[in-house]
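Re: that backbone. Tokens:
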């Protein structure tokens, strides 16, 4: 999402001079491109073999603080911190709070609620600056929330389960706010530097993948060495780094912001999103995406408890659990690469059919392991668990990546960022439903901390439910992933401007694309520029 500028900003001489200077710098770069620069939309030739020069180029084009922010949020906070948190949280609920797997599954869903309201965070970063800045205060707020929540979990030895859940949800909110804010920075720079949009997405994906791999690799060792509480305390370090991004990020100062227009702008954004959701081209795929995710019941906590059980399960150690998850992240990365190089040109309908079907079949690996059939075939638990996790994560990417592409193509011009966050919230509601339904299933089948005799039935039901969404596949467009899905009238920049702006006072559009216009007076050209990118 790109942030709107108020009409007062465009009249501020100092801001105009800064904008003109930035525009002049960009023109100089275009006139005298450095070695290895882009040519006719092609990627940087050196980006594949010289990462340092690639990072330096991105830092020079968009300032080093932006690159640092992406690496910090995607790589350290979400990637490494998220993977370490995954293992530490599982052990915290199991060994410290002593809760049942069904309860842990429900708690996992509750902590995801801040991600469901991502459009709210997005709108706030767009329309409600603090102290004259749109991004920096929200990075600082995110860091503070993460620091306070993680230290609370780490230092309180007798924390009640309700307060522990509240602290974890607060920490999740901090990560979600940072995610939305850095997404806004990426979107803003994608509009200001359209030729570098792919490089920025590569930076985000690369940072996240490497961070997850490193995080899972050391998560088990950390839990074994200092316990789950100690690890949760260490997770305050990524929050400190996010806070530092808020201090160092280079961002234009916006004086004399018209706060009286905030409520009107929020109302206009909500009306526009509601109108878009009423379009059959939009709501039909949304129904499928929600159903597909909601019916893929999440029983990971039951599997985790069984993994670590000494009697019924294989009794994996903390180090083993971390290693299994790290190999799973490699499978996830492999899935992304296979999708990018082989599957991205296939039609939505066909790709989602096979990915949904294979997802149900791949889930049978859990059933083989729980029934101990792998041992009868001579395959040790450790080896089979690695295969199971890798295949599951890879197939999960086959299913998730086309859903992301589909979501991006359902966003109308002018409110792309906010509407994409809304679609991601719908997906997160599906994941929340999946987690709570999985917890209910574990409870009904009486899967507990020590009783796993019915875990096989939970796995079988989950696998069958994964295939059920195939009956709704007719809701998904049959076009390929490179086609335009929205009707022409919704893609008309002028029509969207009429919807988004009822008078000249709404020149500060919802997505802040006016930032592209360095003098702040050419919002119509901003929409045209977005239209060209679409």
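Recovered sequence:
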């Amino acid at each position: 999402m790109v942030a709107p500028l108020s009409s007062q900003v465009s009249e501020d001489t100092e801001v105009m001079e800064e904008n003109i200077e930035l525009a002049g710098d960009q023109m100089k770069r275009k006139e005298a491109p450095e070695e290895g620069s882009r040519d006719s939309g092609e990627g940087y030739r050196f980006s594949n073999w010289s990462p340092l020069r690639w990072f330096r180029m991105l830092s020079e084009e968009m300032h080093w603080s932006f690159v640092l922010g992406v690496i910090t949020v995607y790589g350290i906070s979400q990637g490494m911190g998220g993977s370490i948190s995954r293992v530490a949280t599982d052990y915290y609920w199991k060994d410290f709070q002593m809760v049942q797997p069904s309860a842990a599954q429900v708690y996992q869903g509750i902590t995801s609620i801040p991600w469901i309201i991502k459009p709210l965070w997005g709108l706030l970063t767009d329309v409600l600056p603090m102290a004259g800045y749109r991004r920096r205060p929200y990075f600082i707020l995110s860091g503070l929330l993460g620091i306070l929540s993680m230290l609370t979990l780490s230092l309180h030895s007798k924390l009640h389960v309700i307060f522990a859940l509240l602290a974890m949800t607060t920490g999740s909110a901090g990560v979600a706010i940072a995610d939305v804010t850095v997404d806004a920075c990426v979107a803003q720079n994608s509009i200001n530097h359209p030729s570098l949009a792919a490089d920025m997405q590569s930076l985000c994906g690369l940072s996240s993948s490497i961070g997850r791999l490193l995080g899972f690799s050391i998560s088990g060792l950390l839990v074994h060495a200092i316990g789950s509480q100690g690890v949760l305390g260490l997770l305050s370090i990524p929050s400190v780094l996010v806070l530092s991004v808020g201090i160092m990020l280079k961002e234009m100062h916006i004086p004399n912001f018209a706060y009286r227009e905030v409520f009107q702008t929020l109302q206009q954004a909500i009306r526009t999103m509601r109108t878009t959701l009423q379009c059959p081209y939009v709501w039909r795929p949304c129904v499928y995406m929600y159903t597909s995710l909601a019916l893929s019941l999440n029983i990971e906590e039951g599997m985790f408890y069984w993994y670590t059980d000494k009697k019924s399960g294989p009794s994996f150690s903390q180090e083993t659990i971390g290693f299994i998850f790290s190999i799973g992240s490699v499978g996830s990365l492999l899935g992304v690469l296979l999708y990018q190089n082989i599957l991205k040109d296939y039609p939505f309908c066909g790709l989602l059919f096979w990915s949904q079907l294979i997802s149900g079949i791949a889930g049978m690996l859990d059933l083989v392991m729980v029934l101990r059939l792998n041992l009868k075939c001579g395959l040790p638990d450790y080896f089979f668990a690695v295969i199971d996790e890798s295949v599951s994560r890879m197939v999960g990417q086959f299913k998730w990546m086309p859903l992301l592409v589909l979501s991006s193509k359902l966003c109308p011009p002018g409110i792309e960022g906010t509407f994409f966050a809304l679609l991601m919230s719908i997906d997160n509601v599906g994941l929340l439903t999946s987690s709570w339904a999985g917890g209910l299933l574990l409870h009904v089948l009486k899967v507990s901390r020590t009783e796993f005799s019915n875990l096989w039935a939970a796995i079988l039901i989950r696998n069958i439910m994964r295939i059920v969404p195939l009956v709704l596949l007719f809701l998904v467009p049959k076009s390929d992933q490179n086609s335009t899905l929205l009707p022409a009238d919704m893609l008309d920049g002028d029509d969207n401007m009429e919807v988004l702006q009822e008078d000249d006072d709404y020149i500060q559009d919802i997505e802040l694309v006016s930032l592209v216009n360095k003098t702040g007076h050419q919002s119509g050209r901003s929409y045209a520029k977005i239209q060209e990118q679409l």
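The mean pLDDT is 77. Residues 218 and 516 are 42 Å apart (CA to CA).
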